[in-house]
Amino acid sequence: MKWKPSSDSHLTFHEQIVDWMKFRIESGDWAVGTKIPTQRQLAIQFNVNRSTVQLALDELKADGLLQSKLGSGVFVTNISWNVLLNKTQPNWKKHIDSSIHRANDHTIQLINEYEQYNHIIRLGTGELSPELLPTKQLEQSLKEITLDAKSIGYSSPKGNERLRRVLCDYLKRRGIQSEPENILIVSGALQALQLIAIGLLEEGSVIFHEEPSYLSSIHPFQSAGMRMHTVMRNHQKLAENLKVFKRKRQSIFYCVPTLNNPTGVNWLLEEKKNLYNICKELQIPIIEDDVYHELLFDHTLPTLKSLDKSGQVLYLGSVSKTLSPGLRIGWIVAPSPVVERLADIKMQTDYGSSALSQEIVAHWISTGLYENHLKNLREQLKNRAAFIENILENQFRKIATWNKSEGGFYIWLRFNKPIVNKALFLNLLNQNILINPGYIYHSGDSHHIRLSYAYASLAEIKEGLHALLLLCNHE
Amino acid sequence: MKWKPSSDSHLTFHEQIVDWMKFRIESGDWAVGTKIPTQRQLAIQFNVNRSTVQLALDELKADGLLQSKLGSGVFVTNISWNVLLNKTQPNWKKHIDSSIHRANDHTIQLINEYEQYNHIIRLGTGELSPELLPTKQLEQSLKEITLDAKSIGYSSPKGNERLRRVLCDYLKRRGIQSEPENILIVSGALQALQLIAIGLLEEGSVIFHEEPSYLSSIHPFQSAGMRMHTVMRNHQKLAENLKVFKRKRQSIFYCVPTLNNPTGVNWLLEEKKNLYNICKELQIPIIEDDVYHELLFDHTLPTLKSLDKSGQVLYLGSVSKTLSPGLRIGWIVAPSPVVERLADIKMQTDYGSSALSQEIVAHWISTGLYENHLKNLREQLKNRAAFIENILENQFRKIATWNKSEGGFYIWLRFNKPIVNKALFLNLLNQNILINPGYIYHSGDSHHIRLSYAYASLAEIKEGLHALLLLCNHE
């Protein structure tokens, strides 16, 4: 499908490639600053030798259209337009640099980029391995689903009503009392945070969280102009701290009390009660991000939401960590006025979530397929956790510490020495190994890695950890 | 699934209902200001007589927990909490009122709300009628699709690669040259606007558009702090106006040049060339919203994007108007740096669109199912347009004017007298008829209605227009 040089042309391959690249630059597709694909990728796309690609690139560099930057690749130069013609093009770079939303942190952009490639060993990915996804059963359930026209039209603002009813029932087992009107279907928990940021908080609001924090690796609140403030739930002056930093501003407390991301920690019941009582007194709403709950290995735990008698807790759930991230289905449980407000904004943002995905999730939960799948999944994750812990025990005991996993995906590995910096990240990436370094969850952290046993195969985990160990010993 | 009073209880039905409602208020689910469902809806939910519901409501009103507001329903009073207990709850209303995103216009909120009810005749809905949706074929294609684990995991930032390749090919027929790297898959065109607003424009940027405008009925740019500015493409001083109002600020020009929403108008080729040249000279990027293109009845038209030699035009498409809005799949065609930037923000917003929906769309377009469906759909819409035009011709000729439809969903009906105000909207709603009044597309317009022949059944259209006519003659 992609363009290739043709053997019917009167031009040589390398001349055709030069013309094609000039056209891309001229048309604005490869604007100033665009990083062009690697020689290897281009050689594959064009079905030519790398030397042919190199010849073409050299010519364009000599013309001043392209430029190599040491160690980071080949880029379209900022004089390329003048070289080609004296034409006017929008200055996209200027547009982007001055726009509202923050770019992802560079390490996270690299993670997003390299997660696309099959040859990469992913030691930190917060996602189920392809072999753990119930692909065949999902395919089977597609065959069983009956669509009606209503279910493929625009969904009602709060989402598919059947799914909301099914969820009410499902969440009861977790001590959460709700009615369908208290549930908003969203495209994953991240979108829930986005909606809360723009729909419930004024600019300059204070977001309290504990670090390390998943929130430090994403920016829904920061991009909406909120201030992040780190507090620790066990600090004896927690209430005072919240009061002082909140002052007269609006605020919200974000937490992942069950199988925390990235630490894997479960809060004690006492800690939950304490936080709830303090926040209630100070009228600080709480976001309970509970997307890992189903993955507790041995027993369930009471949610903060189940303690909530005052409509204080906004509860987030999702099937992305358990069934399939590709469905893009999550939910918010909240008081009705909150649900109505967020539904109104969701309608203004994307007119609702995929109706098809909502049907599938309702089908899986209501038929018990989901519960059965979860049983099996927990078993497999537990085995994977044991596998990785065994390697750690044998090889990392002298240089690092960690807690035994109680569920979910992660082990928050702490190195005794502060060796986890961007250089280590890039060094491993150079060996096709991708890690999630602690500093993306807590700026300045140089001790931790969020290891995930959910994604890579056991052989890959072994190989990846071995390479990591060699690097660490080398430090 | 929903709660119902039980006949096993030692309490009467109405006592159980009172307790249940008190619990809802107490728990914060029915916070201050919540509008509670109608007596009729509650009677259905509880499976009791309306008189039982009324008894319960009367008791709660006497207690000061509920309050009727004339003509708008029954609400939770602002002293309800004091009445129940002296407890602290978050003040959600204050949160909502001071937060960042604009609420939908009240008329639009009512439209969103009433579109959920089956008994409403929807004369303005911009959506295919259930009978025009290819529900059975979609169900059939679910059975044919093979999933692989990769396709149900998190999607790559730009979206399913196969779909992007299929779209490159598909868009060639419309004169649009692109590579997969120039395409970003989004959850519908509205999300594309949202991403552009926060990803390409600084606060205070100027958004140019023609009014009436779809953009006036939604607020992605306004909520991001941009200024809307109305210009007309045929104004002889268009270039000067753009220059004056842009000044040194960033700006973008939004347009729907093919089957405009709400007017149905198609721009002339000369108008497109003229706008493109002016915007190119002034370095104003253009958003070409082209979601109705496939619904041109008789012949295709050149897109603005096909004239674009400078990477100036951001082109939006979608299957929401043609195949199924519930899939939530659309796309942006743009220069690579723009696609990369918006993909980065999309990853931060919702981690991509439904993988399942993307698979389905790729399947429909690549197998030709989509093209076949469109042929049939255009035929049916053409018949519907003729039906509504026939009624207009026979009954509205003396009081209104309109253009014959060339495709899409809409007729922009202009009444000679300025009778289209909120009172008319509410009056019709009272008769269970929903219209899209012109003022939601152009503040202050009191002459127009956006009629849609796409949604309501022919019998409903006839009945609805009859009621409208009676009201108009009454004015």
Your description of this structure?
The structure is a homodimer of 475-residue chains. In chain A, a hairpin with a 3-residue loop joins strand 1 (66-69) and strand 2. Chain A has a 7-stranded mixed sheet, with helices on both faces. Chain A has a 4-stranded antiparallel sheet with strand order 11-12-15-14, with no helix packed on it. Chain A has 3 domains: 13-99, Orthogonal Bundle (Arc Repressor Mutant, subunit A); 107-127 and 373-474, Aspartate Aminotransferase, domain 1, CATH 3.90.1150; 134-367, 3-Layer(aba) Sandwich (Aspartate Aminotransferase, domain 2). The first copy, chain A, is 43% helix and 12% strand. With 475 residues, chain A is α/β, with parallel strands linked by helices. At the A-B interface, helix 5, helix 6, helix 7, helix 8 and helix 9 of A face helix 5, helix 6, helix 7, helix 8 and helix 9 of B.
Oligomer: homodimer
How much strand of chain A?
5-15%
What's the total count of β strands of chain A? 15
CATH secondary-structure class of the largest domain in chain A: Alpha Beta
CATH topology of the largest domain in chain A: Aspartate Aminotransferase, domain 2
- The strand line-up of the biggest sheet of chain A is 4-10-9-8-7-5-6
Radius of gyration of CA atoms of chain A, rounded to a whole number: 25 Å
Low-confidence stretches of chain A: none
Provide tags for this entry.
homodimer, 475 residues, alpha/beta, Arc Repressor Mutant, subunit A, Aspartate Aminotransferase, domain 1, Aspartate Aminotransferase, domain 2, 3 domains, seven-stranded mixed β-sheet, four-stranded antiparallel β-sheet, 43% helix, 12% strand, DNA-binding (chains A, B), PyrdxlP-dep_Trfase_major (chains A, B)
